């Protein structure tokens, strides 16, 4: 199982989205898992699935914003993104290896 990561820094907070090809997804802020989705072991994924995670992040003294992470799985690719204040701050697209056997 291939593990992928999307990392960025936003307002001095380290944001990291960990995801794999089986739809296990975790949102880390400053190294701590703040939200996660764990797929059922052995379950077959639907052809298209979107997983959304979110968490508040402190960006200044007594100021918090919501960080949202989205991972979209399809038959041809995985698209991961991180948004803060409704603005895209990082994204990554991974194409599936079509020579792989199920």
Ordered list of secondary-structure elements with their pairings:
Elements (H helix, E strand, L loop, with lengths): L2 E8 L2 E8 L4 E5 L2 E6 L11 E12 L2 E11 L3 E8 L2 E9 L7
Antiparallel strand pairs: 1-2, 2-3, 3-4, 5-6, 6-7, 7-8
Entry keywords:
elongated, four-stranded antiparallel sheet
In a nutshell, what does this entry contain?
The protein has 102 residues and is mainly β. It contains no helices and 8 strands.
Describe the structure.
The chain has one domain: Lipocalin (Beta Barrel), CATH 2.40.128. Helix content is 0%, strand content 66%. The chain has no helices and 8 strands. The chain has a 4-stranded antiparallel sheet with strand order 1-2-3-4, with no helix packed on it. It has a 4-stranded antiparallel sheet with strand order 5-6-7-8, with no helix packed on it.
How many angstroms separate the termini?
12 Å
The sequence of SSEs as H and E is EEEEEEEE
Task: Report the uncertain regions.
Answer: 98-102
Question: Roughly how much helix do the residues carry, as a percent range?
Answer: under 10%
What portion of residues belong to β-strands? over 45%
CATH top level is Mainly Beta
In DSSP terms, counting alpha (H) and pi (I) runs of 4 or more, how many helices? 0
Helix and strand content put the structural class at: mainly beta
Q: Into how many domains do the coordinates divide?
A: 1
| CATH architecture assignment | Beta Barrel
Shape by Cα distribution = elongated
Using the coordinates shown, work out and report the CATH topology: Lipocalin
């Amino acid at each position: 199982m291939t593990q992928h990561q999307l990392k960025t820094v936003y307002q001095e907070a380290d944001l990291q989205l960990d995801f794999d090809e089986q739809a296990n997804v975790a949102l880390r802020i400053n190294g701590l898992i703040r939200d996660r989705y764990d797929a059922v072991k052995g379950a077959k994924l639907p052809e298209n699935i979107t997983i959304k995670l979110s968490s508040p992040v402190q960006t200044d003294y007594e100021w918090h914003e919501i960080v949202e992470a989205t991972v979209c799985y399809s038959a041809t690719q995985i698209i991961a993104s991180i948004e803060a204040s409704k603005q895209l701050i990082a994204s990554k697209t991974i194409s599936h290896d079509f020579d792989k056997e199920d």
